[in-house]
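This section describes the prediction task in plain terms. A model, or a person checking by hand, is given the sequence of a single protein chain and must write out its three-dimensional structure as a string of tokens. No templates, partner chains or ligands are provided. The sample shown here is typical of the held-out split.
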Amino acid sequence: MSSYTPQTDLSLERSRLVGMMLGCVSYGVYLLLTVQAVTALLQRPRHGQRIANNRRTLLCYTLITFTLGTISFACNTKYTEMIWIDLRDAPGGPVVLIRNVMHYRINFVAIFCGYVTEWLMQALLLYRCFVIWNWARYVVIPMVALYIAMIAVAIVVLVQAGSGAPFYNISTALAFLAFQVAQTILYTILVAKRLLSIRGQMKQALVEYDSSTYDTIILMVVESAMAYSVFLIIFIVAFAVHSNSISTLCFLSINQIQGITQLFIIIRVARGRAVTHDWSTRVTAAPTDSSIRRDCVDRSRRN
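The expected answer:
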């Protein structure tokens, strides 16, 4: 018989198990949306809609992020199995195994793949933002600087985690999450502001212009970013107050949640119903054409 006395923290153990179950549900949704995105990227849209010009890049991006997310999810699933089955007789019991996750390399692989996935997903957000803003320097430079700082902080977290430090005691991880929230919120504000500006210019140029397309895209961007931002903020608060139970719940689903929110946008792009570079540049031509027509009318009246 085993001579050790296992530590007791039922809320932490439940959070690991429940978090893994929620992670399975979110991964199932992520898998379903990935299949839909790949299918949409491989097919030409119906009703004459324009297919995404960069569909091959988006297809590779979708498959790469899904593969990395799957590896991270598989590692978390395997370690959850190890906690209660393979390592059931480990000193301290499941509580110690949950708290000292970084003592096992499988968890480092999970975090590394998860971080790389988040870098790629944030890079896609930046690209979409830059396209909508027509690569304006005053938008590109600060957003790229913020992105580089986020990656630098993440590397520090990975180095500390690789040394075996308890993950929930790594204060740098809190800074990494804060960078993600800041970048997501800034992306949402910049994209919404630009789209609202384009919509206003189009309405001025064409009185009967139907702005429902812009309204739908703005709503989609805000809702997607809001869902992920709220999830991140809950994770940050739990991490800051050292609530390991809630932190574990969030940690096991964060990659899938981010992937789900971005796949909604990718599917729209693949079906030709998203903002492109042409949308951000053609608005300057519309008011010019309108002014030309007004000048012609004025001249005819004078004559």
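For orientation: The CA atoms of residues 42 and 164 lie 43 Å apart.
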